[in-house]
Amino acid sequence: AQSVAQPEDQVNVAEGNPLTVKCTYSVSGNPYLFWYVQYPNRGLQFLLKYITGDNLVKGSYGFEAEFNKSQTSFHLKKPSALVSDSALYFCAVRGSGGYQKVTFGTGTKLQVIP
Amino acid sequence: GAVVSQHPSRVICKSGTSVKIECRSLDFQATTMFWYRQFPKQSLMLMATSNEGSKATYEQGVEKDKFLINHASLTLSTLTVTSAHPEDSSFYICSAGAGHTAQETQYFGPGTRLLVL
User: Distance from B105 to chain A by nearest Cα, in Å?
Assistant: First the structure.
């Protein structure tokens, strides 16, 4: 069965500092990997995805993520955090063969401190 | 990007009543819609997947007679929580996708907060 682990419930970072939100996954075959952001009482907004190609994926709002096959990781990063980046971030994975549902991690709350 | 709406955004109902939640894709034809449930401080749990014109596929442990899903058109899917009870209180989120990339590219609605008294 596929799974996603987000080891940190919360990440605190000072405004202007780089941020990293960690994600590791387990899936059969090649993974499709996603990051979503959720603001309070809102649905999820797509940030970026990795399907194939370059391991470094750039997405919305200056976020990027690096696919590391050997470490089965897909950490979300941003060079300089903004207070407005404070939200709940979800990593998700699905397998690449045929129909497979997307499995979400438990989420990491990012708090950017002014 | 594609826009998905949900209505209502918030609903409070008495125990035993039924509640219908609508999910609409506003600017694209959604061949597939997904319904999720999110508990506080927890991840999204996929409840069911519905394809337009077909019966929904429910995930294990989800009662299909309690959570009725209808996907009658390419722009509308509804989730009806029948005979709601307090334990059904949750945040329900739909998402929509198109074609063979529906799983990869899901557009999420803003969610519906259900409180059953």
Answer: 9
